[in-house]
Amino acid sequence: MSHDMSEDKLPESHGSAGQHEVATHGDPFADPGLPAHEPRRTDIDERAAKRAERQVSLMFVVSMLATVGFIASYVAIDADKIVYIFPLGHVSALNFALGLTLGVALFCIGAGAVHWARTLMSDHELPAERHPIEADDEVRADVIEQFKTGAAESGFGRRKMIRNTLIGSMALVPLSGVVLLRDLGPLPEKKLQHTGWDLATPEHPLPLVNMNTNKPMKAEDIVVGSLTFAKPEGLEEDDETFQQQIAKDALMLVRIAPENIKDKDSAELGFEGILAYSKICTHVGCPISLYEQQTHHALCPCHQSTFDLADGARVIFGPAGHPLPQLKITTNEEGFLVATGDFAEPVGPSFWERS
User: Fold this and answer.
1) Which phi and psi angles does 196 have, rounded to 5°?
2) What CATH number is given for 196-339 in this structure?
3) What is the pLDDT of residues 39-54, one digit of tens each?
4) pTM for the complete prediction?
5) Where are the transmembrane segments (predicted)?
6) Fewest C-beta in 10 Å: which of 74, 165, 230, 319?
7) Where are the domains of the chain?
8) Backbone angles phi, psi at 115, to 5 degrees
């Protein structure tokens, strides 16, 4: 039995009333239009709408309580406390509490907004043809009118419970960030004004220890043109606070022929041409490690601030704001280099309380 394929046609189909007509035979990619709008239960059942409103409000209230819990956790839980949480294992109690409460606070705001939009706000689809980016006066007026209509249909003004709880949750969440500013404190007080060399006094000088050998240093060990790094005696690398302390205590020693030292006050703080300067750049605190012995210039590798160590370590190039602080040194009866006091001024970059 033969079959004439030329007579086959695809049946025509149409979308719902008011929607685009579906194309017929020959265009499989035609716009099928929008399906017929189906009302939600909350659109036809006021009890369901009230129930959804209470659910949304409950989420916003939970968000508020979680924010309060975040603040309470930050204040009450010791930062060093460790707890066992299955399946995470041993974790910081403070970090876990902060993460959990902040996560709940943000999640409930988002979930409440989504639930509100899906159950109570208008869900009528409004298709619009593409148009030039710049709108004419009629379109702008239409957009404003649609915005007003959407605002009215959202129930923001009419559903006071949702509105008030949303405002409450949104107002409390930023407090989490405000409380975190507490991590900027407590205030440093005098901690930035002094270093580990503060333990040194003329009566009880503090020996200089070589950073590489971890041994005290003698003056004859430092030759003219050399650059050596030192730390105060008693500061060990396995100390818990070593990184914090070395960031202030790090010292660099240079030996310059006395006749080449331009700043006489700087020469008096040294010993037989050996000068001790802070290794911490006065720009942003990078460690200085590059030295040119012919010019006596020290260069910071981060932003190229250059200091003349033969002239009181004054800044001759770059963004650094002031010279490197100098440490007064001498030798003890055994010939070892020692410090007799702290730096005359704070080391490192400028800060508000800097004198």
Assistant:
1) -65, -20
2) 2.102.10.10
3) 899 989 999 999 999 9
4) 0.52
5) 56-77, 97-117, 164-181
6) 319
7) 41-184, 196-339
8) -65, -40
